[in-house]
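User: Sequence recovery, please. Input:
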């Protein structure tokens, strides 16, 4: 009888080890090595290799056509994917539990089915009756979506491949799937990789768009081996939390479209509602007369977006003051604080500092430096900023304010929402010159911004 091979697989990164250890040498995670037996995709190749076939090589030059797409009927989802789901592609969608992944996919499946395309929804976590209850709550009971509750990948592929393959196949979720090809429990690295590979192979051979739902870890990353993210064609993250009604769908990988677009949804009792003008909603509840608030004119892909950045600076009774950031990079906050200390004379080392992006949005572009600095200075000096002013600009380590891209689009969005003045880098003044638009007040250095806010704070006392 042949001896069964034993190996240990890291559940975080998928690295292999011949013996067990408390720490994975590849990724440094503790207690993640799990024993797995049998062959499967990880088994060593045998001594004899099958003879391969000669491939038909094609020249690089030649005509190219856009990949055929299946529109979902949900404009925000189509924006993120680049115009709809590409036929024969594999899409991985991740997000926190309860964020709305299944709700979004049921709505998208129903919309695609209304266009006359066959759609199959496979749930590995819920029974068919539970999926029907959710569809009834969303008002989608009459949609021509075929349902099944199954986790064995061989049965799923045999079912969807028996007749005409569907246009869209939804798998909820990939962590619950398992295959007979490997001997390990569902949810392990080996099972996730093997089942994902089988589904992707089905998508490429039949032209079906396969959508995989993935769980996330405590760090917000999709659980399982990162190799699955490399195998699929697109990776989408659904962001948000229960404290806010907004949900952000962000593409972090897309072989057939942009990776810097976002889709904005609002969670309601009847499901997810598209938000075509998120700037108006993000600024709808702001208190313009309160110090420590600045309106940032940002860009998410090709979409201009106005959000409110809120700051609170208060003397700290602690030996080590607190620094809390929500929705922005904490490293950039530390850099802005260092520039304010070194070049503007503001001593913030003994203050607790809290910075928040209103609405639950996460900002990643450096153009928010100027708005964050203005909110900090406004809170420190208790001087409210002008309610009809927006800000954008990147702050350098020397204290200079550098120009940013897409200034005309930022200003058009600000003008559309009623703003009349923009504090922007001096380098963007000529680029975005518009005599009929809002007035651009150039800011060349962070020190000039601090002086401007300090002067506004003294005017009431002088009066």
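Assistant: Recovered sequence (463 residues):
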């Amino acid at each position: 009888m042949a001896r069964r091979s034993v190996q240990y697989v890291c559940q975080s990164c998928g690295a292999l080890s011949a013996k067990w250890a408390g720490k994975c040498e590849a990724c440094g995670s503790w207690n993640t090595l799990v024993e797995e037996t049998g062959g499967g995709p990880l088994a060593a190749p045998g001594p004899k290799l099958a003879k391969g076939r000669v491939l038909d090589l094609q020249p690089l030059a030649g005509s190219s056509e856009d990949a055929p797409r299946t529109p979902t009927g949900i404009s925000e989802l189509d924006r993120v994917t680049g115009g709809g789901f590409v036929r024969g592609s594999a899409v991985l969608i991740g997000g926190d539990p309860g964020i709305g992944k299944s709700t979004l996919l049921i709505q998208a499946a129903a919309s695609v089915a209304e266009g006359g395309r066959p759609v199959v929804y496979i749930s590995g976590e819920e029974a068919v009756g539970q999926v029907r209850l959710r569809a009834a709550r969303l008002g989608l009971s009459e949609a021509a979506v075929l349902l099944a509750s199954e986790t064995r990948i061989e049965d799923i592929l045999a079912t969807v491949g028996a007749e005409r393959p569907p246009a869209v196949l939804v798998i909820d979720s990939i962590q619950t799937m398992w295959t007979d090809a490997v001997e390990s429990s569902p949810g392990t690295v080996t099972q996730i990789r093997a089942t994902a590979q089988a589904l992707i192979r089905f998508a490429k051979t039949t032209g079906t768009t396969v959508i995989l739902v993935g769980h996330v870890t405590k760090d917000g990353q999709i659980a399982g081996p990162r190799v699955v993210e490399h195998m699929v064609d697109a990776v989408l993250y659904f962001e948000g939390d229960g404290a806010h009604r907004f949900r952000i769908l962000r593409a972090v990988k897309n072989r057939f479209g942009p990776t810097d677009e976002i889709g904005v949804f609002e969670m309601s009792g009847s499901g997810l509602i598209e938000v075509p003008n998120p700037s108006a909603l993000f600024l709808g509840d702001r208190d313009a007369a309160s110090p420590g608030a600045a309106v940032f004119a940002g860009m998410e892909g090709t979409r201009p977006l106005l959000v409110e950045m809120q700051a609170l600076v208060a003397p700290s009774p602690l030996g080590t003051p607190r620094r809390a950031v929500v929705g922005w990079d904490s490293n950039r906050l530390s850099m802005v604080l260092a520039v304010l200390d070194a070049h503007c004379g503001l001593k913030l080392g003994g203050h607790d500092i809290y910075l928040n992006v209103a609405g639950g949005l996460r900002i990643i572009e450096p153009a928010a430096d100027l708005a964050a600095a203005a909110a900090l200075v406004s809170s420190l000096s208790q001087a409210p900023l002008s309610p009809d002013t927006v800000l954008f600009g990147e702050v350098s380590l020397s204290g200079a304010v550098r120009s940013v891209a897409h200034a005309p689009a930022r200003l058009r969005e600000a003008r559309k929402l009623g703003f009349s003045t923009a504090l922007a880098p001096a380098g963007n003044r000529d680029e975005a010159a518009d005599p009929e638009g809002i007035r651009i007040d150039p800011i060349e250095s962070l020190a000039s911004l601090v002086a401007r806010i300090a002067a506004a704070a003294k005017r009431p006392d002088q009066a």
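The CA atoms of residues 415 and 432 lie 13 Å apart.
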